[in-house]
Amino acid sequence: MRITERENHLAALAQAGVQNGIFPGAAWAFGTVGHDMHDGVAGAAGRLTPEPASAAMQVDTLFDIASLTKVVSVWPLVGWLLKRRRLRLDDRLADLLPGTVGYALAPITVFQLLTHTAGLPLRARLRASYGEVYDDIVRGVLREPLEGMPGQAVEYTDRAALILGFVIERLLGMPLDQALDEHVLRPLGMAATGFGPLPAALGALVAPTEYCEQAGAHLSGVVHDFSTRLLGGVCGISGLFSNVPDLQRFLGAMLAPQAGRHGEVFDAGWVRDSLTVQTGALTPSRGLFWHPAAGTLAQDDVWCHLGFTGTAMWLSPRRGRYAVLLTNKLYYTRDSARVNALRSDFMRSAFDL
């Protein structure tokens, strides 16, 4: 498929998502990276809300990227620490977080957390389990019994990124948001990306998410994920706001880790290992926080991560190509069936599958 044909098809898919009531609006991009070049196209469809007077969605509209936070913050910072030999994949939590000593998490390794094979509880359930005091929540998470046998099953859980966020903060001696800004965002020029809450002045630039009974309005500039709000808005689970241009910079740097200042953030070996199946015969297959896109084959080499608010990123090292689709489908519903079908069509068009 030629670029103009692909571009038109991706734009049509985004517009169809608006017209079919899957989301109020979307911003998207795809691009290729290689041989010291970076070509990309981007677009937007719909409005911030379904109201006719609402501002039109723009390519640089800010979205609550939900679980993409895991691969934009925790994942690169773990790689940064590994490259500098301040962390190893076989390090046990007992040696990284003293609060786990004597508890079930003590022998769990960084590798098991990155592959979602640690046997952790599948749901966050932070307030119900530990209350609303930050220190009580952290203490409770680190002392929680396992629900599965480590290394025996792949079970996605927010707690993996939450715990790795604690590891990063302890090793670097700074909050996660500060570490991210210093070691990832600034080197990559991702000036629009950061943890919320966002200033009210940015209201017209932010895609609202779900209606909040307590606030009496749709959340805008405030993270949707309740566990993240409970932890003050900054943690490994969720909380980042970003836009298409910044995520293009991020994915482009992953595909060309040695270009310019990218090498300060991404090690080529770390990227390669992360985009390689690390879970053997277990299903679903996982790399290191990244996973093969649903419905693809190993030879397709398309990796992705999704966000509950309606966001997605894909990349294929073999093709030197990436794609981004940011939507606020959560404005309408928590059900993901229709947005998942559209995301699949978008991915297949972007990667010629």
TrEMBL record:
<feature type="domain" description="Beta-lactamase-related">
    <location>
        <begin position="11"/>
        <end position="342"/>
    </location>
</feature>
<dbReference type="InterPro" id="IPR012338">
    <property type="entry name" value="Beta-lactam/transpept-like"/>
</dbReference>
<dbReference type="Pfam" id="PF00144">
    <property type="entry name" value="Beta-lactamase"/>
</dbReference>
<dbReference type="GO" id="GO:0016787">
    <property type="term" value="F:hydrolase activity"/>
</dbReference>
<dbReference type="InterPro" id="IPR050789">
    <property type="entry name" value="Diverse_Enzym_Activities"/>
</dbReference>
<dbReference type="InterPro" id="IPR001466">
    <property type="entry name" value="Beta-lactam-related"/>
</dbReference>
<protein>
    <submittedName>
        <fullName>Serine hydrolase</fullName>
    </submittedName>
</protein>
<keyword id="KW-0378">Hydrolase</keyword>
